[in-house]
Amino acid sequence: MLLTRLLDLRILFVGGKGGVGKTTIASSLALLAASSGRRVLVVSTDPAHSLADIFDKSIGDQEVSLSKNLWALEIDSDREADRHISTVKQNMKTLVAPKMYAEIDRQLDLARYSPGAVEAAVLERVTDLMAAAGTRYDLVIFDTAPTGHTVRLLSLPEIITAWTEGMLNHQDRSKRLGSLLDGLQKNGEESSDSGMMDFLKNDSKNQRNEEISRILQNRRDKFFEARKSLTDPRATGFLLVLNPERLPILESKKAFDVLSRFQIEICGMVINRILPSDLTGDFLRSRLKQQSHYMEEISREFSGVRSISVPLLERDVYGMGMLENVGQILSTAISSSEIL
Fold first, then answer.
1. pTM for the complete prediction?
2. Domain region containing 28
3. Are residues 166 and 38 in the same domain?
4. For the segment 192-208, what is each residue's pLDDT rounded down to a tens digit?
């Protein structure tokens, strides 16, 4: 895949083990795409945000302009979880009697801290931002959390869609069974007053059931669209970033296997922080030998994935100037190798 193809995507996830340089690569690619005229949003989904630090600018939970054609935001996972729970509470309270409100609050306040609650809430925001790709923005780049969190996040649309579909089927079966039981009831001897009360009860129950179905259908449709976008290689890609070291390689292998299973396109790899070959001294030569070994392993284990290498730089990368330099390194490496 050529550089023009990479930047023609609508959604790009940049992921890998923590500390390998995901934010540097994501930010540099975002600047590169913006400089070509595309409207780009770069989003951090990592609770340990680095976007503000690397751009050396103030970035929060709402989109902020960084330069021409470039915007950024850092998803606040705790705020998203609180917002998500608040929305669920509001929906639930439209379906029950006021005497149940306190119990709903209690149960959902506990659910706020259950496993997966924060990830589900973050996914809600991610799906909204994915929907902005192709409308408000030409390209949305996600600087993701470490691989394990990201894999779980990207697998959620399929899981939630299947779960919601099951809930809708259950709701439909319950509705049909309720109608059948209503039809079997003997009402010939009932007074007109009791008949009217039953009608009102059934009407209220039907309205509640319809509202539940509407909420579930909207949720199913939302995550179905997210799932469709994630598995469309013309629109979405996942760029793995790793260092030539044992643990990043192992984690990248796991990510590759899981993402492939969920049919999410691995559009390439960036092997970051490559040591220069002219180092001297026993210690550095030993590190070079180890690096060579791991580069061979990467080539062997990811033979079907196109990759480029980015050198270890003399200085820490932060600020627009340094990020533009890394962007040029990426552009040159991609163009010269005609991969990615």
1. 0.83
2. 2-79+120-153+231-339
3. no
4. 455 544 544 455 666 76
